[in-house]
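thoughts on these tokens:
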Amino acid sequence: MIARAAAGLFGVLLAAPALTAWITPGTVLVPLGPASITAEGALVASRLVLRVAAGAGFGLLVMLTTRWTDLLAALTAMRVPDLVVATLAMTQQQIMSLLRTVENMHLARESRLLSAAGTGAERGWVVERMAFVARKSLKTADDVYDAMLARGFSGSVPTLSRLTAGPRDLTWFVLSVTACAAMLAIDRMVFPV
């Protein structure tokens, strides 16, 4: 939910200039000079925000309903380069490790603090912890790369299950493409911009 809200906020920030008459001329709703908000701009901006939120929601749905290893195997089956798949696999593991580190640091500080510190001290502690996490991330990345080279990493990620496309997959693909084409056609009929 947080990822979808963040994507929606990012979409709003990207779409904000499209609201203005300077970017999208049309019927003025809120007169602000060259930054006046137009009805056409509001339509364009709302459509962009809704598309970004829908795309983020779909991506989140796939991530939450598919095991990570199956998702990586599916990317390999779709001929995504091995380097990209390996990077995604290691990035996910690294992020989880760093999140555990940050959580442990925060819990350790909370358990040792008797009173609240000043805002300057709090900001200083946060900056120090950010620098520590960045250093740890770089060191871990170097260590992992050295360990992979020592074990003969060749660039491909071995998986236990090999995915193959069958008739059900082809049917699902055709239905998905048809549904997307229908939605796009409806979008073009409703919003002929």
Remarks:
- The longest strand covers residues 28-30.
- Helices lie at 2-15, 39-65, 68-77, 82-112, 119-150, 167-190.
- The chain has three domains: 1-65, 70-150, 164-193.
- Residues 119-150 form the longest helix (32 residues).
